[in-house]
Structure of Peptide methionine sulfoxide reductase MsrA:
Amino acid sequence: MVSPDNALSGRKSPVLSAPKPHAVNGSEILNRPAGCEIIFLAAGCYWGVEEIYWETAGVKTTAVGFMGGYTPNPTYEEVCTGLTGHTETVRVVYDPQQISIGEILQIFFECHDPTSLHRQGNDIGTQYRSAIFTTTDTQFQIANELKAAYQEVLTQHGKGEIITEIHAPGDTLFFPAEDAHQQYLSKNPDGYRCHSKSGIACPIPGAGPLHLD
């Protein structure tokens, strides 16, 4: 992990200066409709993770960007050098009346391998590390509880330790990526998807396991 002193300097202006409507549902990608909540999730390459969430009932809009590092307003190319400290992250806006935060996080833990440090499949680097950036105390509490519960299940199956970072509300800033990366797999249907799943269901109260392919 790069140190703050050695990180790239970045820039003052956002690289996504004029966000376009969501390529799938036409929503404002950086908006939050009344009654909705936001959580930021890093589970490897953000192209495929964003697709999973825009297809999830109860999710109102999604956007991709970078969090957890030191460089302000980084470009995708800068993040890929590993010299910004950021991880590829999806901004998920959801209606808690339609989908619970537990279900949102169940999808997160099941769509990648949370025991893999700085790597998902063939994607290697600190920009692919697993992380949850919460925006409410309830999200923070449930994320930690679910991580502990899933760890018990993984341990029973001989898996390693979950290394997912869980950040408290307000702990870090979200920097949206360039327009070409927003809803990338809608614009490029045959594009790259990398999900290195553990194949083990993550149990939560009131929701059954997902079907893992």
Remarks:
- Residues 206-213 have pLDDT under 50 and may be disordered.
- DSSP finds five helices and eight strands in the chain.
- The helical segments are 46-54, 76-80, 101-110, 137-156, 184-187.
